[in-house]
Design goal:
Blueprint (H helix, E strand, L loop, with lengths): L2 H8 L5 H21 L10 H12 L3 H10 L4
Length: about 80
């Protein structure tokens, strides 16, 4: 397999089900932060919803792609 097809598959769009899962997870995390109070949570907790929103909007999940590279998935 050449590198072009690997990169093309790696940065291909995620399915609608994965995108909806990430979007719903973002909403639940943000509701939890809102209920706790925005000034009561640590600033690092905002990274997860930011990454999930990025993945849901663009369809490219950095965390999933990282594990695909590490595990060298050929699928």
């Amino acid at each position: 397999m050449d590198d072009y097809t690997f990169l093309q598959r790696l940065f291909g769009k995620s399915s609608r089900a994965v995108r909806l899962f990430l979007f719903n997870s973002t909403l639940l995390i943000m509701i939890g932060i809102w209920l706790s109070g925005f000034d009561n949570v640590h600033w690092s907790i905002y990274f997860v919803p930011a990454f999930y929103t990025f993945a849901a909007v663009l369809g490219i999940c950095p965390g999933m792609n990282l594990w695909r590279i590490i595990l060298n998935e050929s699928e």
